[in-house]
Specification:
445 residues; mainly alpha; single chain; MdtK-like
Length: 445
């Protein structure tokens, strides 16, 4: 007896279940990551202002270094998910191992650069004579954990590609708890000061990397996948990551230009801008969780040669993006009386912040669709297009933003420019999604 085709309502419910099952744990893991720096800041802050200033500089450098290599998670997710969709779990895990080996190699290279140049890197931030030694100490010790951090990124991509976002959540929560305990114990119990905070983070990151490797190695043995480094596979992983690296660097350039423009507007504007940027990053976690689900689901459909399933999943995730953006925008507007006082009691900053905050709220539905389509195209392995699209966005945004101080604009104008940037991203991503050129089926793109 032939089974009746699923109704549109049943298909939507299936997509909804998949999105929720992947996005909710992914959101938890994403939120846990920045808590590492928050714990370090809370513990080190009680040592003194120079120590906290040194931590701020070193943490900024470390966060930037690691975020540049986020392609290790994105590219691995897409590649592994394709092979899962094709039913070849052995090849999926083998692909993941290539990404992990690449992460180790990049991590060692970063250490080799960071250790001797730490004083120079800290000096670029114009650190004071009192804060600089603490920044150098923290940076040098923490850099030893960068290979583990990058392995965590790559292994997270492996598990996401295997449609598993729960394990990364458990590991992130355990890592956060371990980091908190180690920081308190080493900074105050062992009397190591800021060095103890750095060592605590290194140990926690290494523990997380070991936990991921145990899970991946078990999967490799279960499916007969080789654990040895494969030069061709590592090279292919690196090549797949280059376009996503270009995309990430372009996006970082946008954020740096925005902060530089805000600084030129004056202390009040840059203070308000920092509050808005913190809020913008927080909402990005929620939207990025849906994008992560998109990477895993789209990759699996395309690997299974199900082009129509990929299209339907894309449409449903766009709907999720719109609804999530509207909800986040309304929450920003409704919660502003509670949110703003947490960051500032300065009336001038408050007055500058309020109109720009409304612009951020209005832009959330746009951001919702942008994040989703970004995830869809990453899941499809469409990295080269994402790179070019982000370069075009940067080319549009940069002159508009840089003209704001010249024309006498303020912070609200800057965030309208940020909304323009997101609108250009929406246009470029929507045109690609609509064209269908991203739909390339098969175990590899």
């Amino acid at each position: 007896m032939t089974q009746a085709p699923a109704t549109p309502k049943a298909v939507r419910r299936q997509h909804d279940r998949e999105i929720v099952s992947l996005a909710v744990p992914a959101f938890g893991a994403l939120v846990a990551e920045p808590l590492f720096v928050m714990v370090d800041s809370a513990v080190v802050g009680h040592l003194g202002t120079p120590q906290l200033a040194g931590l701020a500089i070193a943490a900024t450098l470390l966060t930037t270094a690691v975020s540049v290599f986020v392609f290790l998670a994105y590219a691995t997710t897409a590649a592994v998910a394709r092979r899962v969709g094709a039913g070849d779990l052995q090849a999926a895990i083998r692909q993941g191992m290539d990404g992990i080996w690449l992460a180790l190699l990049l991590g060692v290279a970063v250490i080799a650069v960071t250790l001797p140049t730490a004083p120079w890197l800290v000096g670029l931030f114009g650190a004071s004579d009192t804060a600089s030694p603490y920044a150098v100490t923290y940076l040098r010790i923490s850099s030893l954990g960068i290979p583990a951090m990058l392995v965590v990124l790559a292994a997270t991509g492996v598990l996401r590609g295997l449609q598993n976002t729960r394990t990364p959540l458990y590991v992130a929560v355990a890592g956060f708890a371990a980091n908190a305990l180690l920081n308190v114990g080493l900074v105050y119990g062992a009397g190591l000061g800021i060095a103890g905070s750095a060592w605590g983070t290194v140990i926690a990151q290494c523990g997380m990397a070991v936990a991921y490797l145990v899970v991946v190695v078990r999967g490799a043995r279960r499916h007969g996948a080789s654990l040895r480094p494969d030069a061709a596979g590592i090279r292919a992983s690196a090549q797949a990551g280059v376009p996503l690296l270009v995309r990430t660097l372009s996006l970082r350039a946008v954020l740096m230009i925005a902060t530089a423009v805000a600084a030129r507007l004056g202390d009040t504007d840059v203070a308000a801008h920092q509050v808005l940027l913190s809020l913008w990053n927080l909402t990005a976690f929620a939207l990025d969780a849906i994008a992560i689900a998109g990477q895993a689901i789209i990759g699996r459909y395309l690997g299974a040669d199900d082009a129509e399933g990929a299209r339907q999943a894309c449409r449903r995730m766009v709907q999720w993006g719109v609804v999530s953006g509207v909800v986040l925008g309304l929450l920003i507007i409704l919660a502003r009386p509670l949110f703003i006082p947490l960051f500032t009691t300065d009336p001038a900053v408050h007055d500058t912040l309020l109109p720009a905050l409304l612009v951020v709220a209005l832009s959330q539905p746009i951001a919702g669709v942008v994040f989703v389509l970004d995830g869809v195209l990453m899941g499809a392995g469409d990295g080269p297009y994402l790179a070019w699209a982000m370069l075009v966005t940067l080319a549009v945004f940069a002159p508009v933003a840089l003209l704001i101080p010249v024309l006498g604009g303020g912070l609200t104008a800057l965030w309208w420019a940020m909304t323009l940037m997101m609108t250009v991203r929406l246009l470029t991503l929507w045109l690609r999604a609509r064209s269908g050129r991203w739909i390339v089926t098969g175990a590899t793109r």
